[in-house]
Amino acid sequence: MKKLKLSLLLLNLVLVTYAQTKPAAKKVEKKEVEIACGECMFKMPGKGCDLAVKIDGVGYFVDGRKIDDFGDAHAEDGFCNAVRKAIVTGEIIDKRFKAKSIQLVEYKKTEKPKL
Question: What is the pLDDT of residue 67?
Fold first, then answer.
């Protein structure tokens, strides 16, 4: 009787484990996107400054890279003050972008007109 109960318990655990569904992942391969601070530039909800990308017009916070990995975020051309372009590869899982690679596109600083 004990073996039967143990077997049923183990079978139940196995079935529950395999019943879990994984969220569908959307792969992103070498796509040019906008990249900046999600809160400062994309007006995404959050606390503090976090790296985000806009893919097809939708903002996603980035996992795998930090906002200061690309320099000071609060510099004149930093992510809290400028939206940049980047070529990214990774996956969108649970409304977050899991970055495998991020390569910034050359940023050309334009001079402000003198008044």
Answer: 95
- Asked if 53 and 64 count as a contact pair (C-beta separation under 8 A), the reply is no
Q: Which of 42, 40, 41, 38 is nearest to 51 (CA)?
A: 38
- Tell me the domain boundaries of the chain: 26-104
* Dihedral over Cα of 32, 104, 49, 81: its sign: negative
Residues 33-70 have pLDDT tens digits of 999 999 999 999 999 999 999 999 999 999 999 999 99
End-to-end CA distance of the chain: 91
Burial class (CB in 10 A: 0-12, 13-18, 19+), 81: middle
